[in-house]
Design a protein that fits this description.
351 residues, six-stranded mixed β-sheet, binds adenosine-5'-triphosphate, elongated, five-stranded antiparallel β-sheet, Rossmann fold
Length: 351
């Protein structure tokens, strides 16, 4: 099978587990994000793929060949780290040519490839400039050009954007994604930023507690989180306790019932967790509770221009709704309000 396959991959440092039970198929040409909180094992997993860390167990195969014992420098993978690791005393051109020089590529071929890459990253004019005299975004582009200089089979990016300010980071996310699609290069990006993963990835691998929690497209993971960990980690969400009542209903702590999609794995009487995204809640002027409409009281309002965030206490739970200014109904703290929770927007998760 083509692409990268990880089978039962694990890593222990002494008795401490860093990564376990990792089974994954990364198809060719896709951008895959390893996403998870600090310490969950993202970098360790990436370093094992790169050959910079040995495996405690399991197998890594690339296009069918076991690469577990192939030294890092023979894997022909491009890497960009958070620190970028550019050589500050060298020019842009020298930095990009460096991996080619190491491989014994002729001077003429080095120059031709550098020219091609500078065109790709749109820094043609800067070939002779020392990298110490570039902006953060330009340095980023040079690091990527150097990583792809020798046509690697895999591009590995470990939090490459985390040192950039928010605006530049967002434009670099789009730039890297477009470059990756143009080159059709299989890429793994490590990040703890779920927005970055949602923006850039074809496939998101959510890691938590040293193992894979879910693998899916960004939308699958956002809309159909496999468990409460993923629901909580991806996006902002209202997660609250409930009890399964059967017939597609759950009971809330305050006694109201909600209609929810039928979930065959949940049994009547089971304690569950509910997920509802803030943008799916609809606020309206107060009316008696009926169906999935609950009566509540506003406890917090934050108007940040493009969106209004309103927190409402209803039926023993605290729910936050996001609305646009034109959907707003002019609420203040203490106002009564009705909240409609569309049943199709409710996700029932095992507690
Ligand atoms: P971050 O987002 O903070 O970089 P991460 O998800 O990339 O975190 P890793 O760096 O892979 O996490 O670390 C996973 C676990 O392995 C952590 O508990 C870490 O302390 C441990 N660990 C990593 N490298 C070593 C090492 N060389 N020796 C001992 N423990 C290590």
């Amino acid at each position: 099978m083509t692409g990268l396959i990880l089978e039962n991959v694990e890593k222990y440092y002494g008795a401490a587990c860093a990564v376990k039970d990792v089974n994954l198929h990364l198809p060719e040409g896709k951008l895959v994000c390893f996403l998870g909180p600090s310490g969950c094992g993202k970098t360790t997993l990436l370093r094992m793929i790169a050959g910079l860390e040995t495996l405690s167990g399991g197998e890594i195969r690339l296009d069918g060949a076991d690469i577990g014992n192939t030294p890092a420098h023979l894997r022909n993978f491009g890497m960009v780290f958070q620190s970028l690791a550019l050589f500050p005393h060298m020019t842009v051109g020298e930095n990009i040519a460096y991996p080619l020089k190491l491989r014994g590529v002729s001077k003429a071929d080095q120059q031709a490839r550098v020219k091609e890459l500078l065109q790709l990253i749109q820094l043609q004019e800067m070939v002779d400039r020392p990298v110490s005299k570039l902006s953060g975004g330009q340095r980023q582009r040079v690091a990527i050009a150097r990583a792809i200089a020798s046509h690697p089979k895999l591009l590995l990016l470990d939090e490459p954007l985390s040192a950039l300010d928010a605006k530049l980071r967002e434009s670099m996310q789009v730039e890297i994604r477009q470059l990756q699609q143009r080159l059709n290069i299989t890429t793994i990006l490590v990040t703890h930023d779920q927005r970055e993963a949602m923006t850039m990835a074809d496939i998101v691998v959510v890691l938590g507690e040293h193992r894979i929690q879910q693998v899916g497209t960004p939308i699958e993971i956002y809309r159909h989180p496999a468990n409460a960990f993923v629901a909580d980690f991806i996006g902002s969400g209202n997660i609250f306790p409930a009890i399964a009542l059967g017939d597609g209903k759950v009971g809330l702590p305050g006694g109201d019932a909600l209609h929810v999609p039928i979930c065959s794995s949940i049994v009547v009487g089971e304690k569950v967790k509910m997920l509802v995204r803030p943008e799916d809640l609809q606020l309206s002027h107060p009316q008696a509770s009926a169906g999935n409409r609950l009566l509540g009281k506003v406890t917090f309002v934050r108007d940040i221009g493009a969106t209004i965030e309103t927190t409402v206490e209803c039926s023993g739970v605290s729910l936050t709704a996001l609305s646009t200014p034109c959907q707003g109904i002019g609420l203040s703290i203490g106002n009564p309000v009705s909240v409609t929770i569309p049943s199709e927007a409710c996700r029932v998760l095992s507690a």
